[in-house]
């Protein structure tokens, strides 16, 4: 493909919408707009927000004097899909249908990404894509088995940022992602710890389901007996909220802001300091488990996400884990860049776009007698 590639990316979040326009690798415009919770509450379902989010984006583009005429691709954050391999997927009728209705049973604003990409491409042309959505599931088979027959492990991770961080770090080493073995962490509002081997994310934690370390709003792994006792006392609905909304920092101290938490700790709040250190301790344990998954042969431990801006967090992880492999910090997120990069790889012919089958990549074990 000749000429400059014009790629528009859209990342709908729980309380915000991020947009960015790229010309080749250069971001020429970006904006992050927050939405009032009361406004979003007017809509019954996630997909009902589509007209409102569309109008919000149109207003932002008009205010900036930007037209999407001639756009080559529009990439939306994916969501609502059944487990699938990593890669860049065309937004076709099947993928769009699953995003609209949330085929995986998890209602999340990321479902709006494919819908928004499709809508803008319908108006301006170009190809609509999603790149490494949260539904990416590349677990090796042995990682799927649990101690309950018929209950198999699946994962929900920050696949977009995890894979982009790994791709970038491999390039900095002069190697391809497909040649490397990494432990990659996303440490932000949610925390993902994952093992990557030869271009595949072969193990990780179901952070939506309550696995892994505690996070600002997530409880992380807790003994089943304790969860059952909590459910008996507080009800199933409240117990489910611990997985994504009311666990972690929120459960302990009623806050979700890591800066506020560490500020309290520095001011002498021992409880706040214990919560912060316990989260890091649990991250370190998860990193150690992923090292075992990779047989102790690890090319690097990579840390991304908003909390990686904390030097204290990075230093404590280095102190505990650098004996496994060098620890590299990538503060913040590459989500918009990752979406644009995925589209660029397809448009340039470096990678083939994938077609979403609408069938889970994992159909379950076939048990013997």
UniProtKB/TrEMBL annotation:
<dbReference type="InterPro" id="IPR000890">
    <property type="entry name" value="Aliphatic_acid_kin_short-chain"/>
</dbReference>
<keyword id="KW-0547">Nucleotide-binding</keyword>
<keyword id="KW-0963">Cytoplasm</keyword>
<protein>
    <recommendedName>
        <fullName>Probable butyrate kinase</fullName>
        <ecNumber>2.7.2.7</ecNumber>
    </recommendedName>
</protein>
<dbReference type="GO" id="GO:0005737">
    <property type="term" value="C:cytoplasm"/>
</dbReference>
<keyword id="KW-0418">Kinase</keyword>
<dbReference type="Pfam" id="PF00871">
    <property type="entry name" value="Acetate_kinase"/>
</dbReference>
<dbReference type="GO" id="GO:0006083">
    <property type="term" value="P:acetate metabolic process"/>
</dbReference>
<dbReference type="GO" id="GO:0008776">
    <property type="term" value="F:acetate kinase activity"/>
</dbReference>
<dbReference type="InterPro" id="IPR043129">
    <property type="entry name" value="ATPase_NBD"/>
</dbReference>
<dbReference type="InterPro" id="IPR011245">
    <property type="entry name" value="Butyrate_kin"/>
</dbReference>
<dbReference type="GO" id="GO:0047761">
    <property type="term" value="F:butyrate kinase activity"/>
</dbReference>
<dbReference type="InterPro" id="IPR023865">
    <property type="entry name" value="Aliphatic_acid_kinase_CS"/>
</dbReference>
<dbReference type="GO" id="GO:0005524">
    <property type="term" value="F:ATP binding"/>
</dbReference>
<keyword id="KW-0067">ATP-binding</keyword>
<comment type="similarity">
    <text>Belongs to the acetokinase family.</text>
</comment>
<keyword id="KW-0808">Transferase</keyword>
């Amino acid at each position: 493909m000749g000429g400059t590639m014009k790629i528009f990316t859209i990342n709908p979040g729980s309380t915000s919408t991020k947009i960015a326009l790229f010309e080749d690798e250069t971001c020429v415009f970006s904006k992050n707009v927050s939405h009032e919770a009361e406004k979003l509450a007017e809509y019954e379902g996630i997909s009902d927000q589509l007209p409102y989010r569309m109008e919000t984006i149109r207003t932002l583009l008009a205010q900036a004097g930007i037209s999407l005429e001639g756009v080559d691709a529009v990439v939306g954050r994916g969501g609502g899909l059944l487990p699938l391999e990593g890669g860049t997927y065309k937004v076709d009728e099947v993928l769009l249908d699953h995003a609209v209705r949330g085929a995986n049973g998890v209602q999340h604003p990321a479902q709006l990404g494919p819908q928004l990409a499709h809508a803008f491409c319908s108006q301006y042309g170009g190809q609509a894509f999603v790149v490494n959505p949260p539904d990416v599931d590349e677990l090796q088979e042995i990682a799927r088995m649990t101690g309950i027959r018929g209950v198999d492990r699946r994962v929900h991770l920050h696949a977009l940022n995890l894979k982009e961080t790994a791709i970038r770090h491999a390039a900095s080493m002069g190697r391809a992602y497909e040649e490397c073995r990494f432990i990659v962490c996303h440490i932000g509002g949610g925390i993902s710890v994952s093992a990557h081997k030869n271009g595949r994310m072969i193990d990780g934690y179901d952070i939506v389901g309550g696995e892994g370390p505690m996070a600002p709003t997530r409880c992380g792994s807790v003994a089943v007996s304790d969860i059952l006792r909590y459910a008996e006392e507080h009800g199933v609905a409240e117990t489910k909220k611990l997985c994504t909304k009311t666990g972690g920092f929120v459960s302990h101290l009623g806050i979700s802001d890591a800066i506020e938490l560490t500020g309290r700790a520095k001011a002498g709040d021992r409880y706040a300091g214990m919560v912060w250190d316990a989260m890091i301790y649990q991250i370190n344990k998860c990193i150690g488990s992923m090292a075992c998954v990779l047989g102790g042969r690890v090319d690097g431990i990579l840390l991304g996400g908003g909390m990686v801006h904390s030097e204290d967090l990075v230093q404590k992880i280095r102190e505990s884990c650098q004996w496994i492999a060098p620890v590299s910090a990538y503060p913040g997120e590459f989500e918009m860049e990752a979406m644009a990069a995925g589209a660029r790889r397809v448009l340039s012919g470096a990678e083939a776009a994938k077609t979403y089958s609408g069938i889970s990549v994992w159909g379950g074990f076939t048990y013997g007698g």
